[in-house]
Design a protein that fits this description.
single chain, 292 residues, alpha/beta, Rossmann fold, 5 strands, binds adenosine-5'-triphosphate, binds magnesium ion, Polyphosphate:nucleotide phosphotransferase, PPK2 family, phosphotransferase activity, phosphate group as acceptor
Length: 292
């Protein structure tokens, strides 16, 4: 099994050195075994693997949920934070990877521009409220990182406001991890050409018109500024406790395969199992056998 965590983890000499996103090819497929190994077309093979790993993820998620259920919700939780440029494939990743698990145990939240009320509580206020309770797998489709990305690029707040947020985010995430939540942060990394392709699809396909927002083209025009903001956030807010991964995402089948593996490895670390019953199993079985 490929160690996707080491392959995709961002590497920076220090938090002050931004991650070089240009050095990561969005079309690349790190860790994917070649046709010689699998004997199959890589895309078809990866899709089948996503199905197979999805079943494993579902079992792991059920164990997480079961453990918390017997511990009165005191169990651990997992939080996947997804960030990407527009059309980066967050929705698709949620559908295909998180979708393999039981919706009852999922806590999925998408973050758009904050309302006036949300803004009043500070940028982490709505994020705290959306954290997954014990036993749940949470997914953030965009997150508190928007407050050092779009806010920075579009000048929605002055630097004196957004710059101290890196440290605030690190403190916050440390607190979340200490509270029993495993945090996995993933940037789905697409190329400028792929984004153009996907935006064009949204304008061509009537079933996708609703996904297009004219402001997407304004964001696209500031691609380099966004990348600079990502590069700094990734470097400043990567830690062993709450690591950042950059996942090449031009190929959707690779994206889903790599993300499935990342989650699988994350669950494996938790060493989950189904809880032992706190009642006398044999006695209960005898009771039921006698009733019939
Ligand atoms: P897609 O990638 O499929 O277009 P999306 O995540 O862009 O999906 P939208 O509803 O189109 O979903 O956009 C959400 C918008 O909310 C994004 O433009 C994002 O930058 C913005 N947003 C999220 N958080 C904040 C924030 N804290 N401050 C300002 N804008 C934010
Ligand atoms: Mg959008």
């Amino acid at each position: 099994m490929p160690d996707m965590r080491s392959l995709l983890r961002v590497r920076s000499e220090s938090p002050d050195v931004p991650i070089d996103l240009d050095a990561i090819d969005p079309k690349s497929t790190p860790g994917l075994p070649g046709r010689k190994v699998t004997g199959k077309d890589p895309k078809l093979w990866a899709r089948a693997e996503v199905e197979r790993i999805g079943a494993e993820l579902a079992t792991q998620q059920e164990m997480l949920f079961a453990q918390a259920a017997v511990d009165d919700g005191q169990g651990r939780s997992v939080l996947l934070v997804l960030q990407a440029m527009d059309c980066g494939g967050k929705d698709g990743a949620v559908k295909r990877v998180a979708g393999a698990m039981n919706p009852l145990g999922m806590h999925i939240k998408a973050f758009g521009p904050p309302t006036a009320q949300e803004r009043r509580g500070g940028f982490l206020w709505r994020i705290r409220k959306a954290l997954p309770p014990g036993g749940y797998v949470g997914v953030f489709n965009r997150s508190h990182y928007e407050d050092v990305l779009i806010v920075r690029v579009n000048g929605l707040a002055p630097e004196s406001v957004w710059r101290p947020r890196y440290e605030k985010i690190n403190d916050f995430e440390r607190e979340v991890v200490d509270g029993g939540t495993t945090v996995v942060k993933v940037m789905l990394h697409i190329s400028r050409e792929e984004q153009r392709e996907r935006l064009m699809q949204r304008l061509i396909d009537p079933a996708k018109h609703w996904k297009f927002n004219p402001s997407d083209l304004d964001s696209r025009a500031r691609w380099d500024d966004y990348h600079a903001a990502y590069a700094e956030a990734l470097a400043r807010c990567d830690s062993d406790a709450a690591p950042w991964y950059v996942l090449p995402a031009d190929r959707k089948w690779y994206r889903d395969w790599a993300l499935s593996h990342l989650l699988r490895q994350t669950f494996a670390d938790l060493k989950l199992s189904y809880p032992q019953p706190d009642y006398d199993l044999a006695a209960q079985r005898r009771r039921l056998e006698a009733d019939g």
